[in-house]
């Protein structure tokens, strides 16, 4: 399938792939095409044995300006609450179709979390509404100092429904999430770091990309089984008790720990060299 608004920029010699939201003239606003292409592109990278880490960024001056308002206009004018439209008298079938559409959007923006490989978001410019939904599904987030964030949905008459209200509390805390979501206020890169939404703030996009590419290369040089396992345990453990999480990691490690990788890591440390792990 030819990609129109999500661009795979290839993978480097370290196994770091670059994926670009590519609607710069629309601020990389999320339209149906982008919702459709993003999970397809991420699944392809997940299945590519050459890829070990994925970097997600946006083309043009913004990372993502949120959901395309054309979607909201179209859906609101044809919504089951505006008219029954399906001949069932109470619009139940229309509501069922609309619910299925929301779940499709949710699945699309959950694709970074579903990807077995680490997905790192590099944020610059605006990251609004659906952009927050997207980055909270990524594993690590970095931004530039002039980045602008907002959980914007209430200003559009919407309860945010694509993931930010579910994932943000574990990232920035319940009270902070409540305040950001109810006010829809803007906050900058400095505050994003203070809240814990991003791990580091950079003065420029160029500085951020250079630093994050280096960091991603370091992750790519580690045991792929260990990296995948670490992501899986952290994602699963978020919704488990400590005891359940311990049971899960014990079961996972007993099934997939590579003693060959452990031996190579120990040898490399003794020989003061970088380890060379086999690809999957």
Q: In short, what is this structure?
A:
It is built from twelve helices and nine strands. It has helices at 32-47, 69-77, 92-109, 111-114, 130-136, 164-172, 174-183, 189-195, 205-220, 224-237, 242-256, 259-270; strands at residues 6-11, 16-21, 53-58, 119-123, 126-128, 140-144, 148-150, 187-188, 200-202. Helix 1 (32-47) crosses helix 3 (92-109), helix 5 (130-136) crosses helix 6 and helix 10 (224-237) runs antiparallel to helix 11 (242-256).
What does this protein structure show overall?
The structure is a single chain. By secondary structure, the chain is an alpha/beta fold. The protein has helices spanning 32-47, 69-77, 92-109, 111-114, 130-136, 164-172, 174-183, 189-195, 205-220, 224-237, 242-256, 259-270; strands at residues 6-11, 16-21, 53-58, 119-123, 126-128, 140-144, 148-150, 187-188, 200-202. The longest helix is centred in the middle third of the chain and has 18 residues, at 92-109. The radius of gyration is 20 Å and the shape is globular. The mean pLDDT is 90.
């Amino acid at each position: 399938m030819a990609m129109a608004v999500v661009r795979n920029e290839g993978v480097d010699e370290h196994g770091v792939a670059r994926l670009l939201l590519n609607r710069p003239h629309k601020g990389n606003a999320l339209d149906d095409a982008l919702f459709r292409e993003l999970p397809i592109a991420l699944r392809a990278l997940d299945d590519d044995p050459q890829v070990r880490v994925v970097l997600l960024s946006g083309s043009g001056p913004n990372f993502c300006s949120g959901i395309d308002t054309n979607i909201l206009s179209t859906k609101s004018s044809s919504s089951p609450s505006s008219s029954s439209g399906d001949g069932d008298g109470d619009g139940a079938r229309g509501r069922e179709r609309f619910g299925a559409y929301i779940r499709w959007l949710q699945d699309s923006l959950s694709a970074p979390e579903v990807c077995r490989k680490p997905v790192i978001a590099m944020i610059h410019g605006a990251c609004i509404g659906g952009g927050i939904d997207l980055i909270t599904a990524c594993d690590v987030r970095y931004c530039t100092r002039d980045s602008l964030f907002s959980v914007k949905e209430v200003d559009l008459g919407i309860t945010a429904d694509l993931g930010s209200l579910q994932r943000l509390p574990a990232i920035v805390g319940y009270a902070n999430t409540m305040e950001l979501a109810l006010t829809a206020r803007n906050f900058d890169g400095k505050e994003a770091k203070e809240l814990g939404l991003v791990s580091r703030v950079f003065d420029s996009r160029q500085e951020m990309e250079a630093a994050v590419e280096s960091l991603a290369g370091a992750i790519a040089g580690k045991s792929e089984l260990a990296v995948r396992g670490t992501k899986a345990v952290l994602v699963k453990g978020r919704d488990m008790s400590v005891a359940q999480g311990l049971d899960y990691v014990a079961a996972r490690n007993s099934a997939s720990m590579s003693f060959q990788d452990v031996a190579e890591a120990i040898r490399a440390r003794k020989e003061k060299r970088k380890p060379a792990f086999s690809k999957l």
